[in-house]
Write a structure and sequence with these properties.
GO terms for molecular function: microtubule binding. One of its GO terms (biological process) is regulation of mitotic spindle organization. The protein is 10% helix and 29% strand. It has two helices and 15 strands. It has a seven-stranded antiparallel beta sheet, with helices on one face. A six-stranded antiparallel beta sheet has the order 4-14-7-8-9-10, with no helix packed on it. It has a two-stranded antiparallel sheet with strand order 1-5. The longest helix is centred in the middle third of the chain and has 15 residues. The two termini are 22 Å apart. About 27% of the residues have low confidence.
């Protein structure tokens, strides 16, 4: 089951090395559309306001509801509810404000104490990680969520990671993170990444990706959310709870949480589990 993070929420960094100082990048506005999975499934399409214990008639498990942890996201990522937008000036604005605050000295009234973040007060992601995490741990059961990204994004990644990842780490470049990564910078590539190993995915790149995670069986699968084509499956042995993890560089994306596992995906996963697909090669 997914559960809220109470202790230290570690870093699951971004993906694919992306050069700093993205010159010429413009902030991209992305208007989220409805998730593709709901058609014909008899399941609500709504993604906001769903409690974590929501039970949909005919569905064996509750929907997985999570939000994004804005308090620990990379300073160049602007998080609004479930939407994330690259902001090239994000870090510079924060640095300027910090310098101005140091120059003014203390005021008569003390500033309010900052609430500890889900990662236990650790620093937010930095350098080339460009990462933001979900705020709900997965420590059992099977769960599904979708993410739609802007096609003009120079780099985008989605997957899961342990909460113990460092703030500098990039998603898929450590033994504690798994993802699929799209690189549109200089040379286009679509890869599955884990432990600094990459496998090129010879499939059409969708603009909306479904993520399926079965914690106990160790399956992490990625689907074309529209067609339900399987993109890649990792077969892992998770030794601690994982968090939904995302990265974007010079682009934007929108997350759909509160979704049931689509029946099509469940059928495909049963087949995948029975055949122990060779697709899961980066564990």
């Amino acid at each position: 089951m997914g559960r809220g993070v109470g202790g230290s929420l570690a870093a699951s960094p971004g993906v694919g090395a992306a050069p700093l100082g993205c010159r010429g990048c413009q902030r991209v506005s992305h208007s989220p559309a409805r998730p593709w999975w709901g058609a014909g499934e008899g399941v609500p399409r709504r993604t906001r306001g769903l409690g974590p214990g929501l039970i949909v008639p005919g569905a064996p498990s509750p929907a997985f509801m999570f939000r994004l942890d804005a308090s620990t996201c990379h300073q160049n990522l602007k998080v609004e509810e479930l939407s994330v937008e690259w902001d090239a000036m994000g870090g510079k604005v924060q640095d300027i404000k910090a310098r101005e605050k140091d120059g003014k000295g203390r005021t008569a009234s003390p500033s309010p104490k900052r609430m500890p973040s889900a990662r236990g007060g650790r620093d937010r992601f930095t350098a080339e990680s460009y990462t933001v995490l979900g705020d709900t741990l997965i420590d059992g059961g099977d769960h599904y969520w979708e993410v739609r990204y802007d096609r003009d994004s120079k780099a985008f990644g989605v997957g899961v990671a342990y909460r113990t990842l460092g703030k500098f780490d990039q998603l898929g470049k450590t033994s504690s993170s798994w993802c699929v990564h799209l690189n549109n910078w200089l040379q286009v590539s679509f890869t599955a990444k884990h432990n600094n190993k990459a496998k090129v995915l010879d499939v059409p790149v969708p603009d909306c990706i479904g993520v399926y995670c079965n914690f106990h069986e160790g399956f992490l699968s990625f689907y074309n959310a529209r067609t339900k084509q399987l993109l890649h499956t990792f077969k892992a042995k998770f030794t601690q709870p994982v968090l939904p993890a995302f990265m974007v560089w010079c682009g934007s994306f929108h997350v759909y949480s509160g979704l049931q596992v689509p029946s099509t995906v469940k059928c495909l996963q049963k087949r995948n589990s029975a055949t122990s697909s060779s697709n899961a090669s980066l564990t």
